[in-house]
Every structure is written in structure tokens, then in C-alpha cells.
Specification:
By secondary structure, the protein is α+β, with helices and mostly antiparallel strands. It is about 35% helix and about 40% strand. The strands form 3 sheets. It has a 5-stranded antiparallel sheet with strand order 5-6-4-7-9, covered by helices on one side. A hairpin with a 4-residue loop joins strand 5 and strand 6.
């Protein structure tokens, strides 16, 4: 009896679905039991873009020490890294804005042709951190301070610019995207000889992350007193897209 009732219910559901599909026509789709007419109307994509001057500088920097033993390499790396961290703090970089990104200890080897064996020639200790600089004007002087502190063991290999709070810029870009979508839809409606209705569907597409990077190769000569390293953040673009469907009025 239970099986018969279950079969009857399933049969009724299938029949109801078939009726709805026939009545809906080609313009409708079924998603999770909800019927929609997403193929109808005028579909457009709008893009909004805002130029912004970055207010955050992210540096990837650290220490790389190579010695014959692990202990010696670790000692050199620790001492140099302590000096680098002190230099960052003395130049106004907060503890919360310094984060360890990479640390490794690995063997350095070479192939001995005489013995046909791999021979360990030393050990390499690498300690890299990311430092967020909230004063872009001090980026050059901070880089120089780090280089002086770490000396020949200093490694500075990446600089990235971003915006601390991109929310207001995304709001502006969103407004521009909607305006562009509206203009496109109105033009399409005019060309097609139809009347444009209200939006029936709106979704936000991809956002461009507010960050761009540069590869930095920094060499510090201890015997010289170089001028401050010039760092210019320039401008960056924050953008997003919106997808909008407009009804066509009869």
C-alpha cells in the first residue's frame, strides 16, 4: 500500500512538471523546482572602472644565509632578521602588519665526479616576511633601512600596491556599471523597435582585485651611502561588471 501511494505521488509530480513545461514554452528554464523566463527580454553587461591612487604598499622581504652548517646559517639568518625587524618597527611598521610568509632550511649540494656521489657543500636558511606599509611616501626610506640592517643577506623581491578600504571605490564602479548597462539596453531597444521595461534580473560579475605588483631587484653596497630608493605607486584601476536583464514592454 505504501509503495502504491509513493508511486502515485511520483507519477502526479512528473505529470505536473510536464504540464508546466508545456505551458512555459521555450523561454523558460527549471532550476531547483522554480520556473523562470531568463531567456526573455534584453540582456546586457555593464562595466564600471575607477582610477585610484594606492594607499598601501606590501613588501616581500627577508634574509637568506648560506653557511657550511645548519647552526651557522641559522645564527646568521636570525641575527640579520632581528635587525631587519627592528628597522621595520623603528620606521613605523606595526607588528600586526608584519607576517612571516616563507621559511626554509635546505641543503646545498654538488655532484662529485670522482666519487660519483652527491656532496653537501652547505646549508641555506631563508626567512621571508611581508610588511604592509601604510605610509606610501616612506616606502623608499624603509626599503633602504631594511637593506642596511640586513646587509648582504637582504632579499627584497616584490612590491605590491593596493587600497586599504576599496569599498567606496567599488560603490562608484557599481554605479558606473549600472549606467552603462542601462545605456546599452536603451540603445538595443531603440534599434529593435521595442519599448524597454524594468530590470527583471541583476547580478554582479567579477571584481578586479585592488592590487598590482612589481618585481624588485635590490642590491645594497655597504661601502656607499645611496640616495633614497624612489618608489612611485602611480594609479591603479578598480573595476567590476554587472549583468542586467530588462523586460520588453508590449
Amino acid at each position: 500500500m505504501v509503495k502504491k501511494n509513493r508511486s502515485l505521488i511520483i507519477g502526479l509530480m512528473l505529470a505536473l512538471t510536464a504540464v508546466l513545461l508545456v505551458g512555459c514554452g521555450q523561454g523558460c528554464t527549471v532550476a531547483g523546482g522554480v520556473f523562470s523566463s531568463q531567456q526573455e527580454g534584453i540582456w546586457v553587461t555593464g562595466r564600471g572602472e575607477v582610477s585610484v591612487v594606492p594607499d598601501i604598499v606590501n613588501l616581500r622581504l627577508g634574509i637568506e644565509a648560506r653557511e657550511e652548517s645548519v647552526a651557522e646559517a641559522q645564527t646568521q639568518a636570525k641575527e640579520a632578521m632581528d635587525r631587519v625587524m627592528s628597522a621595520l618597527r623603528e620606521n613605523g611598521v606595526a607588528e600586526k602588519d608584519i607576517k612571516t610568509q616563507y621559511f626554509s632550511i635546505r641543503r646545498i649540494t654538488k655532484w662529485d665526479r670522482d666519487t660519483e656521489e652527491e656532496v653537501v657543500t652547505g646549508y641555506l636558511v631563508t626567512n621571508m616576511v611581508t610588511a604592509k606599509l601604510r605610509d606610501t611616501d616612506k616606502a623608499g626610506s624603509i626599503i633602504d633601512a631594511v637593506a642596511r640592517a640586513g646587509g648582504d643577506l637582504t632579499r627584497i623581491d616584490n612590491i605590491a600596491f593596493s587600497v586599504d578600504d576599496p569599498s567606496p571605490y567599488y560603490e562608484e564602479a557599481r554605479k558606473k556599471a549600472i549606467v552603462e548597462a542601462q545605456d546599452k539596453a536603451e540603445q538595443l531597444a531603440k534599434l529593435a523597435g521595442v519599448r524597454l521595461g524594468k530590470p527583471t534580473y541583476i547580478s554582479e560579475g567579477a571584481q578586479t582585485p585592488p592590487i598590482y605588483q612589481r618585481i624588485v631587484e635590490y642590491e645594497y653596497a655597504a661601502a656607499q651611502a645611496p640616495a633614497e630608493t624612489p618608489i612611485s605607486p602611480g594609479e591603479m584601476e578598480i573595476s567590476l561588471t554587472v549583468n542586467v536583464a530588462y523586460a520588453i514592454l508590449k
